[in-house]
Structures are given as structure tokens and as C-alpha cells.
Amino acid sequence: MGTNEIHNLNHAQSLGAGHAARRQTGDGIRGFEELIQEKARDRLNFSKHATKRLDERGIAIDNRLLGDLEHAVDEARKKGSKDVAVIGSKGMFIVNVPNNTVVTTMSQDDMKNRIFTNIDSAVFM
């Protein structure tokens, strides 16, 4: 092989390596964007009705409770739940799992002598 052939081979290899690096970086960026979108979908939303009930019933949502709710909804999602009652020390939260939305909530006192319909699962936290 002559000097020109070796130079051309090295140049071609470096171009190929650069292309592979760009491709990996591109995949990494696309993966990161998908992860960000997935995390945004994972955030629990509260309907207007649920927000009103929280205010009326004096239920405060702190970061710990929100994290516990999100974890409970994730567990319900893994089991195929659509509408879940998440029951904890602060009360009960009815969550539409596909929409990731709390649709209503009630305090411990409000839960006494109640019948809950249109839920397919319950998670205790």
C-alpha cells in the first residue's frame, strides 16, 4: 500500500468513526428527549374537581405525599389498572391512571359509610 492509499484509508476510517459517534449522540439525544417527555407524563395532575375537594377538606399535598401518590399510581399502572383508589393516612385519592389525573379526593372522615364505584383497584400507601 502506498502513502496515499494509507492516508485515504485512515481518512475513511475517521469519517466512519465520526459518523458512528454522531449517530450515537443523536440516539442519546433522542433517548433523553423521550425520557423527559415520559417524566412529564408521569407527573400526577389534579382535576379542578379534585383541587376544589382538597381545599374544602383541608388536605395539603406536600412533596412526600405527591411522591407516594405517584409511586402508588405507577404500581397500579404496572398491574393494568385504569381507575384506582389510593388510600393513605391523609385520605383517599381516586386517580384515572391512563390520564395520570386525580379526579377526586376525600378525607378519612369522609370515607366512612361510603360506597366507591367505578374503580378497578385499590392501593394502600
Automatic annotation (TrEMBL):
This is Flagellar operon protein. Residues 1-22 are annotated as: Disordered. Residues 1-13 have a biased composition (Polar residues). Keywords: Cell projection, Cilium, Flagellum.
